[in-house]
Amino acid sequence: MKRTTADRSLAAVAVLAVLALASCQPSPPQALGTVEWERITVPAPVAEPVLALEVREGQRVAAGDLLLRLDQTRQNARLEALRSQARRAREQLAELRAGPRSETIAQARARRDAARARLAEAEAQYRRAQSLTGRQLVSRADLDRARAARDGARAELEQAGQALLELEHGPRAEHLAQAEAALAAAEAEVTDQEALLAKLSPVAPRAGLVDSLPYKAGDQAPVGAPLAVLLVGEAPHARVYLPAALRARVAVGDRALVRVEGREEVYEGRLLMIRSQPSFTPYYALAGDDAERLSYLAEIQLGTEAATLPAGLPAQAEFPR
Question: Which PANTHER family match (predicted)?
Fold first, then answer.
C-alpha cells in the first residue's frame, strides 16, 4: 500500500512531537563550581621591608625552601639588647649564689669590733659621770649626755653585729627565687626574639606551588599580611554549589563524577563536605519554586589523576545513583 502525502505529513509531525517531548525532559541536576587547591599563607611576623624574593610565582618548592628575606637590622639589635639583659640577670643570680666575699665579711667584723670599743668607752664615761654627779662635781645635763652616748654606742654595736650576721648567713631564699625568676624571664624573651628573627627568612611549610607573592623587594607588608600563598596537596578538589533538588539526594562520602572545562576526561571523586547553611537565600520566601534557588557549598576530593589541573577551572559535578 502506498502512503499518501497526508500520511507522511502525520508521521513527520509525530517524530517532531517525540523529539520535542524528549527535549522537555529535565536533565539530571548538576553542581557547578571550580577546581581549587588547598591554600596556605605565610604571614608577615613584623612590619619589615622585603629585601629579596628567593622564588617566583608558579615555581614548585619543597618543604623548608626559602621563600624570601625580610630586613633583620632592627630585630637583630633588639636581640642583642635582650641577650645583654639576660647576661646581667645571670650574673646577678651568680653573685647571690656565691654570697658575700670574705673581704666584705672582714670589714663588717671590723666595724662590729670598733662599735664594741666605742661602747666600752661610752660606758666608762657614763660611770665616771655618775660618780662625779654624786659628789656634785658635774651637772645633771653632763650625766644625761653621757647616758645618751652610751645608749647610742650600744645601738651602733647591735647594728654592726646584725649586719655581720646577715653577711655570714648569705642571701635569703626569697631573693634567690626572685633572681632565678628574673633570669628565666630574660632568657624567655631572648628565645622569643630568636624565633621571631628566624621568621624573617620564611620557608615553605609544605611542598607545593607558589601561587602568589603579593609583595616585592622594597615593599613593607603590615603585620599579618600574606607574604606568600602556596597551593599544596597531592590533588585538587572541586568546590561546587549543590542545588536544593540535589542536596537531599547526596551525602558525604558519595561518589561524584566531575567534568572540567577544557578537559575531555571525567574525574572521579568523593564528596568531602556539605555546608548545612545555604549560600543563597531569597529575601521574599522559601516556598514552592523559590526553594529551588537555594544552593549549598560542597567540596569533592579528586584523585591523583587530577593533579595537573590548575586552580580556577570551571567544573560540573554529577552524582550517579
Answer: EFFLUX SYSTEM COMPONENT YKNX-RELATED, UPF0194 MEMBRANE PROTEIN YBHG
* Percent over 70 (pLDDT), the chain: 86
Dump pLDDT digits (tens) for 48-64: 999 999 999 999 999 99
Contact 50, 215 (CB under 8 A): yes
d(CA 44, CA 48): 8
Residues forming beta bridges with residue 296, ordered by sequence position: 242
Residue 290 has a pLDDT of 53
Specify the length of the chain in residues.
321
Distance CA(244)–CA(229), nearest Å, equals 34
Q: Which helix (H) or strand (E) holds 181?
A: helix 173-198
Is residue 13 included in any domain, yes or no? Answer: no
Which residues span the domain enclosing 145?
A: 81-192
* Same domain as 150, residue 101: yes
Please write the tens of the pLDDT for every residue from 263-313: 999 999 999 999 988 876 544 434 455 556 778 899 999 999 999 999 999
Alpha carbons 59 and 50: distance in angstroms, whole number: 19
Element (H, E) at 243: strand 226-243
Q: Say how many domains are in the chain.
A: 2
